[in-house]
Fold each of these.
Amino acid sequence: MSFDWSSLPAAQGAGPEAVPEMINHALTVLADLLEEGDLACEFSLVSGSLIDGDVAESVNALLPSLCRVQGLQWVQSWRTPVGDALPGLFLPTRQADAWGQGAPARALVDSLTYWVMALMGRLWPDDAECWSLTVETDDWYAAAYVDVVINHQEQVWLLHLGVTD
């Protein structure tokens, strides 16, 4: 879309403390829209302080208790894995006509994705340190997921985009 979502007053006027809540709210709506039968999306953004300069340790503190970092793979920009995953990786498989390019439901989830990306751009510059995360777990975790870790200004962010069955 050619519209600049970051130009909206809601995005421009939101203080840094409000933006994460706005992102989580938009992710909740997006997850609700993409839910299908036995599959549910679980999208979230959490953050914590960088612990002793160690990104992996900081991410472990943000993960559920029986999960831990298995691997962190550096990516050039957080926009790449997020843009590749949303909404395409999570589009429902039933009712293909509702989710095809140009269909109203697809236009709505695409617009929400652009809004989420504009809000994320308020938190992190494109060149913020970023990794794709692989999780090791002794318990249940999302069946399929894209986890992105961003380290910016001594704050570590974990964006979880997952689907459960």
Amino acid sequence: MLRKLLLVVLVALVSACSSGGGAELPAGPDLMKKASEAMKTVKSASFSITTEGKPKVPLKQADGRLTAAGDADGTISLEVLGSLQEITFALVGDTVHFKGPTGGFQRLTRKELAQLYDPSLILSPDKGVPQLLATAGDPRVEAEENGAYRVATTFSGPVLGTLVPGVTQGVNGTVWVDKATSRLTKVVLPLQDGTVTVAFSDYDAPVTITPPPSAG
């Protein structure tokens, strides 16, 4: 009798362990395709870019808001000739209003900004996050964490450079895709001498980007 009871308990334990307590993880390529399509429908988002260590990229930190129309505002910290410069910007239409730590706002054209960094491309279906996810190489879903799937994958340098300027080589990174919406929540990119993390939030929140009052 005791032997039978022990066998029943053992079978129950094995079954519980093998089931993993949840649903089977999705296939990586299917999830990336779904996430890419989901990102194409985004109307607006908030983003942040942070660095740890000393990765060899000029962009060190950024926070801002984006719209699908290509407008954006926020702050960016760039390393220029060995000096860290924090820039406040508002990109409206074809005009960029920007200012450094001192002085008033100045103007650039969108084309001139693109030579440094154009954050408005982050939501671009052809050049931004949707393209980054669509071209991700060998994606492998590793786990489910806090309502998101963690995926190990490889990104090509040219596509990744749109998100993080200065990146030219392929990178083995990790992304988190929201389980409910299939939208991207975070990207972690290990680079030489440091790590870059890009995070997204406030999807489709009402956003109106306007020129700063002092821009004239």
Amino acid sequence: MQILSGLRLWVTRPSQQAADLVNLLHAAGAEVLPLPLLEIAPPADLAPLQFALANIGQFDLAVFISPSALDAVFARLPGPWPQNLPVAVVGPGSERRARALGVQDIICPASQFDSEGLLQEARMQSLAGKKLVLFRGNGGRELLPSALQERGALLTLITAYQRQPPRFDLDHLTSQLDRGCDGIIISSSEAAQHLFQLAGGEALQALQSRIYFVPHPRIAQTLIALGAKQIELTDAGDSGILHGICLHFTKPRQESR
């Protein structure tokens, strides 16, 4: 029997990033509703991105804040990625995407998959005078760029894409809640905020009573502030999220035997 058979789970990632996780959940027997809470679009001004890519060889290190940043950059890269230009990423999803795009030299945290974890890596320490480019979406945390500049890096910040709110409305959200939801996978604090801002009244109460699976404590803290009462912290990456979901739904069955 498939572990997640009979369960209906929501995957709220941007559509460009959801396929692998959706396939894993399907393989485990779950019914999956893709419900993107963020949409990825080109930046409002493409000129800085295009200029940085035309001169990509001048940099000593390129930092990518997400798989979306990697996709946005490599889609517009005018030539091959320079072989001697290392790439730094914050988590296993970005690491896998970078390797799939042909990058060989990748810096990624060993365990703590966030900006703080990346900053602990040995190769991120001695940056004085080095030219770095950081590709990210609009907005976001300033911790990483601030820390890189404090370490003496000559940092160029590039908005490679912009995140937009979901395209569905309250009626669609309510109809999906009525159909049933055994768990919601949230991959960013911003996505959680969009979801709860969209809801109201009974829909808000229904959302607050659902189970949320999140890969980072910061997302859990956001959900708690929004009134969510059941939150399961999983490991990072698609396999880590799947493992956490399977543990949650199988543990009670094992204990009841």
